[in-house]
Amino acid sequence: MRIADILSRDRVIYELNSTGKQEVIREMTSLLPKEILDLDQVVQILMERERLGSTGIGEGVAIPHGKLAGLSSMIAAFGRSTRGVEFESLDGNPTHLLFLLVAPEDSAGAHLKALARISRLFKDSQFRKVLMGARDVDELYEAILEEDEKYG
Q: Can you tell me the mean pLDDT for 56-71?
């Protein structure tokens, strides 16, 4: 699985408007295809997952994720907040880079592999700096794809 398989340029937000967890999740979910998804249901699933424990993994990164019945393949969105979002992150710091992932209900293995790949990308502090310094959506998207290519 490559990030390009699940994330398209039109599902990247250069600067998130929202500052709270649920609002950010709703803002990012709004980019997902309404034709195949009930967006309110997606928000509900993601918030249920957050109640189990924050997906704010620290160092300014969060990976909100969940599984949805009836979905045929994984889908993602990415958002950046230069001012930061209160996401109840494990380190208590604001979250700046958010990668939202929705997977089919029966995709446990693929879902975990995708989470591991995304997590590996965002562990690199230099990569996070590149994303924070990007000047537009194109730079954000290209940087993500370029970094992902390093992992084959």
A: 94
CB-based contacts of 46-51 (< 8 A; 24+ apart in sequence)? 46/100, 46/102, 47/22, 50/21, 50/25, 50/88
The model's pTM: 0.94
Report the relative pairing of strands 95-104 and 61-62 from DSSP bridges: parallel
Structure tokens at 143: 């940087």
Confirm whether 65 is a catalytic residue.
Answer: yes
Chain centroid to CA 28: 8
* Helix or strand holding residue 101 (H, E): strand 95-104
Catalytic annotation, pick one of 65, 80, 96, 111: 65
Average pLDDT over residues 130-147: 97
